[in-house]
């Protein structure tokens, strides 16, 4: 699969403060790339560097195989839609007037404008002044403004920020619709749950460093889930394992962390030889949230 | 062209229109009213009315008005995340700069037209002056419209980089005061700077009736040379400021 965005040791420093450090980010074409990290971890700065709004201190950005910098950015930006920080829009103008500005500026036709408005389902709100929009409506208009140019790449910075649950679900649906239409989407969030299900690829940022990048499945396999053992005497079983593994009793079961498949077989054999009756052995089901928390804790959050 | 049209679309419902209409009317009413109050008449008819209307306006108020217009036009870009959106489009930086300057220049041109209309309306209907405003002042007005462009470009640059509404206006006030002072002191070369060029241009042709009254720096008569130099100098200054702004803006990071 072709890579649409790639960065090489991308870094941004303000004086002695490093905001983004040696980021090697890659976004395969057609994916929904979930860019996760706590507030202040450098997500917005990274996205601004991808758009050349902020110049990197070192390292570089390539988009569609060509360098993205101040001399090439205007050429690239015709194919990149973006929404950075809060949604844009001129408050004293109506939604339609805002779209007309984009149309004139980018030389777009009526169909492109209508399609963008229909995609974010804002047809009924276009004659209202943007100043009177709700936050969700502003977000959707902002996305329509980004979509009108029919981008190949869409970069959305916290588009679910401040939305109610229905709005968040609507945003997820919109992202899937766009991805189905062949648009590569990069979407950031500090709340994992908000992009958990729609993202096909994840990048996790902590204190300016990428602590994980890969598919959802890879993320789960990167962090080995705990082994849970249900047996007749959990406390004795836990004591027996105390020397060889990290185990404890959790809700009537023995929870063993960081156990490989081989070690699991050994643990079970040891328990059986000590005449402990084993009813069930299984891997704990982890939510992405737990994996995320584990990773960001490891990153020294 | 797209960036110029889109700037005009942004001016809809803009506060700038009230500045464009009210500022020159207030200045004409104040200038002519004080003349009537103190002297009881316009000694030299239309000439006196014109000089009293444009004198203080050109020397102190006009650049401040332009500064307010520039701040108003740029203010919308500093709101929400419009700045990010503005710089994330395929529109080249210099076109963004030119679009804004075109919009402010048109507003400033309308301001001059309103001033002329106010002078004529007051002269004809309120003060009942005989005849008509001499056409020389109409030509001077066209020259003023040209000489406004470098000041527009400079104020636009200040408001591009300053989020503050008031700071560029304050700078305009200081620079206007300084250049009017420099004109009075006849410092060589000062007339080549945007603010002094504009101030001088506003007083062009007023010399015909003025002898040390109202203005005391060298006032040019309206000659083809003056017209040519004013237009040429305005164009050169505007291009320099546009190029400088575009280069700096293109190298500036958005605020984080």
Q: Uncertain segments of chain B of ≥5 residues (pLDDT<50)? A: 210-214
How many runs of DSSP E, i.e. beta strands of chain B?
0
Largest sheet of chain B: none
Termini Cα gap of chain A: 33 Å
Walk me through the structure.
The complex is a heterodimer of chains A (301) and B (256). By secondary structure, chain A is of the alpha/beta class. Among the domains of chain A are: 148 residues, Rossmann fold (3-Layer(aba) Sandwich), CATH 3.40.50; 62 residues, 2-Layer Sandwich (Alpha-Beta Plaits). Helices cover 36% and strands 28% of the residues of chain A. Chain A contains 11 helices and 15 strands. In chain A, strands 7-8-9-4-10-11 form a 6-stranded mixed β-sheet, with helices on both faces. In chain A, strands 1, 2, 3, 5 and 6 form a 5-stranded antiparallel β-sheet that branches. In chain A, strands 13-14-12-15 form a 4-stranded antiparallel β-sheet, covered by helices on one side. Chain A is elongated, with a radius of gyration of 24 Å. Chain B has one domain. In chain B, helix 3 runs antiparallel to helix 8 and helix 5 packs antiparallel against helix 9. The relative contact order of chain B is 0.15. About 2% of the residues of chain B have low confidence.
Short description:
The complex is a heterodimer of chains A (301) and B (256). Chain A is α/β, with parallel strands linked by helices. Chain A has eleven helices and 15 strands.
Topology:
The complex is a heterodimer of chains A (301) and B (256).
Chain A: E1 3-14, E2 17-23, E3 26-28, E4 32-36, H1 43-50, E5 58-63, E6 66-67, H2 73-77, E7 80-83, H3 95-106, H4 110-119, H5 135-147, E8 153-156, H6 165-180, E9 184-189, H7 192-195, E10 201-206, E11 209-215, H8 216-222, E12 227-231, H9 234-241, E13 246-250, E14 253-257, H10 261-273, E15 278-283, H11 288-298
Parallel strand pairs in A: 4-9, 4-10, 7-8, 8-9
Antiparallel strand pairs in A: 1-2, 1-3, 1-5, 5-6, 10-11, 12-14, 12-15, 13-14
Chain B: H1 2-10, H2 16-39, H3 46-78, H4 82-87, H5 93-126, H6 135-161, H7 166-184, H8 194-202, H9 224-251
